[in-house]
Amino acid sequence: MALIEVDRLRHCYRVGGGLVWALEGVSLTIKRGEFVAVIGPSGSGKSTFMNILGCLDSPSEGRYRLNGVYVGGLHHDELAAIRNRNIGFVFQSFNLLPRASALENVELPLVYRRMWAGERRRAALAMLARVGLADRARHTPAELSGGQQQRVAIARALVTEPLLLLADEPTGALDSQTGLEIMAIFRRLNGEGLTIVLVTHEAEIAAHADRIVAFRDGRVVSDTPVVQQARSLGNARHLSLAYNNVR
Amino acid sequence: MLGIIIGVAAVVVMIAIGVGARERIAAQIRSLGANLISISPGSAKMGSVRLGAGGAPRLSEEDAAAIGMEIPGVVVAAPLLHAREQFTIGSTNWQGVLRGVTPEYFSAREWRVIAGQEMTPEDNKRVANVVLIGTTMREKLFGKADPLGAAIRIRDVPFTVIGLLERKGQSVWGDDQDDIALVPLRTARRQFIGTSRANPTFVHNITVKFADWASAEDTMAAIRQLLWQRHRLRTGQEDSFMVSNLAEAANVEGSTTRVVSLLLSAVASISLVVGGIGIMNIMLVTVTERVREIGLRLAVGARRRDILAQFLVEAVTLALLGGILGAAIGTVAAIAVGSLAQWPVIIDLSAVMLAIGFAAAVGVFFGYYPARKAARLQPIEALRTE
Ligand SMILES: Nc1ncnc2c1ncn2[C@@H]1O[C@H](COP(=O)(O)OP(=O)(O)OP(=O)(O)O)[C@@H](O)[C@H]1O
Ligand SMILES: [Mg+2]
Fold first, then answer.
1. A134 found inside a domain
2. Taking an 8 Å Cβ-Cβ cutoff, which residues of chain A contact chain B?
3. What would the mean pLDDT of B245-269 be, rounded to a whole number?
4. Least confident of B167-176, B249-258, B311-320
5. Which ligand lies nearest the alpha carbon of A12?
6. Domain range annotation of chain B
7. N or C, which end of chain B is more exposed by having fewer CB within 10 Å?
8. Is the dihedral of CA A112, A116, A117, A123 positive or negative?
9. Interval B302-327: pLDDT, tens
């Protein structure tokens, strides 16, 4: 069953006096349980696409259906509810509240669900444990490494048990070893049935996905499944092919 | 913030002074004795011919008796004479007010004798040299010693102290009502005031107690009418006496405190507005500094009203902090004003709460615009801001 259906999505930014088209007609369907990597050169519209999927921005043209609901034209409160219940977002720069502890950061989405403090705490602690940070609950972001901060951000994205996890270059600010640890977490979550869409520049990271969608100049230029062996080989010929298509 | 502090402090001081003044006036009216009318010989207005031979006071004991008997609604009419005299005991001298009164005066003023004896009609008839003294006079002449039965000299005439008067406090006009000695009316006339041939029983003043506050105007008109007849004045002539309602005079006096209150409320409202604008500024800066945080909150599902509420709460918290600080400063200031300037102040908890409530309202009012600005941010633009 399709979780995401986008149809001829176009999006433009107003720059100075003119318009910059970041997306020029993207149509795509992502089913429940898929793990999709979005790749493409800088400026190809990947982040713009992710923001629209995350209901953080609405497209200039085209339609977006999430879990059977057309998102266009929803009231801002309904969009807030969708962001709160259905979507978890992980950013390249973590976006943690600097003065709050890891636990409080993870609790934040639940605050907007009007959940009791005790229940909130329990859910947040359980989620921190799942990303291996149970013993860091009281630390503030400044007291955590980059990888740990990103794991806190993942816990925050998942604490509401969303249908969809969106990650825009989640490993972009991390070294490759830490990046692989994050990917291991994503793989495990996907194994538990979570739908994941992830943007990356790195072939090694994209190789963890089941399907690679390549963007260029605001369009999808290739959409290929990743075969199991290719993933186990790491830097497979298949992946190189996908990249060559883009370059 | 400073504005809020000053504003709330001013509100607290203002209410403390206002309530204090109201209480003081009420107390003074009570000390006068309720429902009193004072009749004194009128100094005729400028340019008019003064009535009465040689300017002799025109009120008499008979006038008082007539008022007491003939006018309905009058409980009692008490004639009195007054003078400043020298009081002496041993080597202690004191200048104070002497009044010659009849027992009616005590009931008119509701003035009780707390020790010793009351003045009797016999004292007046016998022209007895007896005196009742107020608490101030007693302190000046006797210190801690027992004054009852003591002999004092008033302008070298020996008197016996027979009673001590209840404390009355300050009058509306600011003088000490307890710095007083009361002697029988006829004693005062014979020993100190003297008589006039034209009006052998003249008095300086008649104090009238009336029964019903609502009919005060009618009673005053009836008194004026009666005196008019008794003094055979023709229509068009000026009154030779002034009839005034003392409680009303006290209320007029209260208007000075009203001016002070008005001034303070002007200071309070200006400071509160200035403070409110200050809070608005702080909040606008806060919102700009935290755009990213707002973006993140929106991204994880905060609705606009959640953001609005968050920043309103922050603005109100700021304002409340200022308010509580201001209330504390205002309380101290009110007490200081009370003790330094001899203003009566009353600090009322509900007034302090009201002032702090004002501060909170200012916080809501001036915090609304910045909070709305925060709530209206678009999530993606807010997140992109560095
Ligand atoms: N806020 C904006 N205002 C104006 N133009 C924008 C804005 N955001 C993106 N763009 C433009 O839209 C196009 C697509 O940008 P987008 O951020 O989606 O690319 P991207 O694929 O995520 O690139 P990168 O890999 O560098 O993150 C670019 O040409 C960019 O300049
Ligand atoms: Mg990007």
1. yes
2. 51, 54, 56-57, 76-77, 80-81, 83-85, 89, 91, 95, 97, 108-109, 112-113, 156, 160
3. 70
4. B249-258
5. 1
6. 2-25+251-383, 57-239
7. C
8. negative
9. 999 999 999 999 999 999 999 999 89
